Amino acid sequence: RLERNSIGKYIIPSIAAVPTYSTSPNPRYRAVDPLFGSIGSVPVTKSALELKPSEYGRLALSGAVCTVLVRTALNPLELIKTKQQLKNDKELLDFAQKRAKKAKKTMDEAQQNNTRTDDATNPQAERGELKIGSVDLILSLVELRGPLALFQSADITFLASLMFGSFGFGATELFRRSFTIVFFNEGGTGTNSEVILLLAATVATIITSFFASPFELLRVRSMGLVDAKKWTEVLRE
Q: Does the reported pTM lie above 0.90?
C-alpha cells in the first residue's frame, strides 16, 4: 500500500528505498561535492575558438623546442644514412673497412676452423670487402674525427627544426579553430572535430613544408659534404 512520506512523495513501506546517490568515503572529495567529488567543482566550459597571440606563441615555442630536441638527437643517424647512400667520404669508408677487417681478423684467429668456409661462401670476403653497418660507421666516425663529427650540419638542423616545429604546431591549432568557426558555429564535436583536426593538420603541413624546404635542402647538402661547413658557407655554394 502506498504511503506519503514527510516530503510529499509516495513510497511503498515494504520495499527498501534505493539511494539516488552515494557519497565518497574520502573526506577530501566529499568536502568538495558529495556526488561528483572534485569534478563537481569544475564548471562545464566551451572550447575557445579564438587563438590569442600569446597562446599561439606558447604553441609555437613548445613545438620548436620539441622538434629541435628530437631532430638533434636523430642527427647522427641521418648523417650516417646520408654517407652510406652517397659513399663519397672515402676516408671514412676506408677507415671503417680497415677497422672491420681488423675485427674480423681477430675473430678468425679465435675461430680458425670457420675461416675457410666464410671466405668461400662470402663473395665480399673474396674481393677483400666487408659489409659496413650503421653502428660500425658511427664508431669509425667517432674514432676518426671525434664525437662532435656526428653532429655535422647540426646548425642547419636547428634552423629547419625551428621552422617545422613553430609553424607546424601553431598553424595546426590556428587552422583547427578557424575551420571550426567557419564550418561549425557551435564548435565541432565527435566525427566533425576529427575531420577538422585532420584538415587543419594537412593545411599546416603543406604550408610548413613550403617555408621549411629551403632549410631542409641545405641540411641534406651539408650532410653530404665530406668536411663539415657552416650553414652560411653551404648557402653560398
A: no
